[in-house]
Amino acid sequence: MTTTYKRGDSDTRPWGTWEVLDAGESFCVKKIIVNPGAILSLQLHHFRAEHWIIAAGEAMVVLGDDILYRKSNDAVYIPAETKHRIKNTSAHTPLIFIEIQTGEKLDESDIVRFEDNYGRLK
To answer: What's the pTM value of the predicted model, to 2 decimals?
Structure first.
């Protein structure tokens, strides 16, 4: 198992920001803030699963063929190899969620994008 994330890593994306709160050999915990109305790319990961816990705001989640609506204190489990994305459904309030990644390879290279509003398809 490998992770290239370390506590304190962060990045600004077109949709918002993420920060690594903790990381170990087989896990990574991120705080993700999605700007009002913004949406992440439709993507999947080959080597990791993700657990999302909504801390603040409201979200629309695409999980495989399903569309889910989640709010503060709700959770979503995303198995490896499952297409997913999240959108902040508020026009005024940031969406904040905690993402817990588990798996054999935890890094940014394990993102396969299918749709992206910001021109980042690989």
So the answer is: 0.92
